[in-house]
């Protein structure tokens, strides 16, 4: 081992490039997309507007929005070949494996997959944005033994997503909660999945390869998989009065508590207050105060024992549960949102590319020879 080499395990604290897409500021606990505070975007914009902003750097004009939403609505239907590919996958496959395979199938069928022009990549990004809800909604339905629900072009993105998943529309308040979650999940600088997409892009591989890799990176419980894991934790604990004891046992056995902690935010995740307020709307609407009590009990016990605060996955997990999604669909919902941030980063990486290839320090056996 070379003692003089400084190892940055997990690249912690390493700044690897510039980005103009979002600014995560752990000191002020703020998150800006293209300069706009995410809370303002969540309150005032549709998810379609936020997607446009992330890709293009500015909010759409009225006519740009009209053209974009028309195109988006025309691309929502599940491609029959993609449906066939999904149907071939066993129900034992995790929905993240299904969505990864579905995106890969779209890529393999796109004759222009390797066209790396900005216009071609923007069109691919917008098309995946439009198609992901159908893939995810259909996967939940087939697991429930239900048929596909075709899209409706009289609904906006969030309404249509819920329509295709459940075959009915929830209250306006619930639709708004879903939209808020999509906006909050959309982008977060050089997180593990986005960085994966940038690494793949840096080799000049196509956008679909980068997105497929990013989906793989998001699946893990230390990243996007945590929203699903939070719900498993709640199921395991059961009721609020058992939270403290459960936590003590879990910490004693060195378990990581899902939905808590963050690589960048050490004083709380900027997105949590907005998502918690959205969760509270669903709790009030459903009367599930028991879930709210469990949420609060685990949060206060964790703060007291470890001083570690919740991340966005902590309120999102129970919110998706109350919206009616099955637990294993939660992380694919994150995919549907983060497709915007990933593809914005893919285009940014392409525009100013340098092959991403760090160094390693060798600590294996010394040179030796065959006798
Ligand atoms: C949208 C998102 O992707 S947000 C992240 C979602 N992931 C999760 O919720 C999974 C649970 N959280 C974690 O595993 C971590 O907090 C991570 C992976 C998110 C960040 O990890 P890191 O930045 O590497 O923090 P690190 O592991 O250095 O933690 C510092 C200390 O806090 C502890 N810690 C951090 N998070 C947790 C947690 N959730 N539960 C228990 N202990 C924790 C670590 O064990 C470590 O303790 P030690 O110093 O005694 O070894
Ligand atoms: O930034 C991170 O490391 C993880 C995260 O919160 C996200 O991707 O939204």
From TrEMBL:
List cellular component terms (GO). cytosol
Tell me the GO BP annotations in alphabetical order.
Answer: carbohydrate metabolic process; tricarboxylic acid cycle
Q: Where is the active site?
A: 262, 313
Q: In which pathway does it act?
A: Carbohydrate metabolism; tricarboxylic acid cycle; isocitrate from oxaloacetate: step 1/2
Stored SUPFAM superfamilies: Citrate synthase (SSF48256)
InterPro entries, per database record: 2-MeCitrate/Citrate_synth_II, Citrate_synth-like_lrg_a-sub, Citrate_synth-like_sm_a-sub, Citrate_synthase, Citrate_synthase_AS, Citrate_synthase_bac-typ, Citrate_synthase_sf
* Domain of life the protein comes from: Bacteria
Q: What chemistry does it catalyse, as a reaction equation? A: oxaloacetate + acetyl-CoA + H2O = citrate + CoA + H(+)
For this chain, one GO molecular function annotation is: citrate synthase activity
The entry's keywords: Acyltransferase, Transferase, Tricarboxylic acid cycle
Which family does the record claim for this protein? Answer: Belongs to the citrate synthase family.
Q: What is this protein called?
A: Citrate synthase
Organism, scientific name: Lysinibacter cavernae
